[in-house]
Please model this.
Amino acid sequence: MSHFSFLASLGKQARERLTGLGLFTRFFFMLLQRSSIVFKRPRLVSQQVHFIGNFSLLIIIVSGLFVGFVLGLQGYYTLNRYGSEEALGLLVALSLTRELGPVITALLFAGRAGTSLTAEIGLMKADEQLAAMEVMAVDPIRRVFVPRFWGGVIAMPVLAAVFSMVGIIGGWVVGVLLIGIDTGAFWSQMQNGVDVYKDVLNGVIKSIIFGIAVTLIALYEGWQARATPEGVARATTRTVVTGSLAVLGLDFLLTALMFSN
Model:
């Protein structure tokens, strides 16, 4: 009997996962179908870009600066073994534009903006604001979810670019001002070694995909949250966990596709 119970429990969990994946996919297509409001009322999206991006800017700048400091130190210690200290600028720039900039920004984005979006949607659901919109013949997906979705997608690559820029400045401060590497060699190695299309553009594509994934997960968790304080709290926790795992998994796949040659 225990074997049958285990199989029944396993089948139930598999069915729930498939149902959740179907609802998630359906929710994504609902957002895309109603995205025309972005062109008709762009101010709704600009407000969300300001809310999501501006309020996340401080933590992005501070984190990027200290990541640049650490990259400058660790990069110098590693390159010093081979007498290649002048390549520190190239190391810092490639590390940030290819990997650390998009990934760390997406993780911080999930913890700061993602939880905020989930909590906001969850509280609107608990207060029956979404239901009131439906009663007034206002589509909540179109009016509430779509502007927040595209606001997150637009804000994410901008924040990743700011993170990488500040990180490069942090690496320059440590490498040039503190350690004493020649500033001309620092910048020239970076300019000669970083390819705009292969490195910078692929990093931007990564950040856009991360923005789509994290924002979509945050909105979906808020949409599916139970209309109770405990339900909203659990939804925000799932946003951070699921969003972070999605970013790391997507980063592996994208890196394998983009930089395999």
In short: Residues 129 and 203 are 38 Å apart (CA to CA). The radius of gyration is 22 Å. The chain has one domain: 34-258.
